[in-house]
Write a structure and sequence with these properties.
0% strand; mainly alpha
Length: 140
């Protein structure tokens, strides 16, 4: 990614963090908005926004546009994630939920694939020189 877009380490960090920041800021508000306006319309809007932002991310010619589209992608994810859990819980009666549903839902909603990608990047051979130049020692 850094070579194809000519992205610096700072750009890569912003590509990851733009999504996470917008997602975190809008998550609770989007959940409440789903309670007020209905979960299904917000879920559909979230899927549309997330899908279009994902397409735009894939077509981004430079890191600046990718960062902007990742922020939009985070907004779409914030719209759809709380609606997903509300729709699932509302669809099935409470007495039919097995005890494992809630921990699995919590784990699934809190797992961020970007964090996994960043950790994989840190363990790669490409990350070690970038981090050692800045004084960090992330060597195997």
């Amino acid at each position: 990614m850094s070579e194809g877009l000519s992205a610096s380490l700072s750009d890569i960090l912003w590509i990851i963090n733009a999504y996470v920041l917008v997602y975190a800021v809008l998550l609770i508000t989007a959940g409440r908005l789903g309670d007020l306006r209905g979960q299904r319309p917000l879920f559909v809007a979230g899927v549309v926004v997330f899908t279009l932002a994902s397409l735009a991310c894939g077509l981004s010619p430079n890191p600046t546009l990718l960062i902007a589209f990742r922020a939009v992608q985070g907004a779409g994810a914030a719209l759809l994630m709380p609606q997903t859990m509300a729709i699932i819980i509302g669809t099935f009666p409470a007495d039919t939920h097995p005890p494992i549903v809630y921990p699995v839902a919590l784990l699934a909603s809190s797992t961020n694939p970007d964090a996994k990608d960043f950790l994989a990047y840190l363990e790669s051979d490409k990350a070690a020189p970038a981090f050692t130049k800045q004084g960090f020692t992330i060597l195997k």
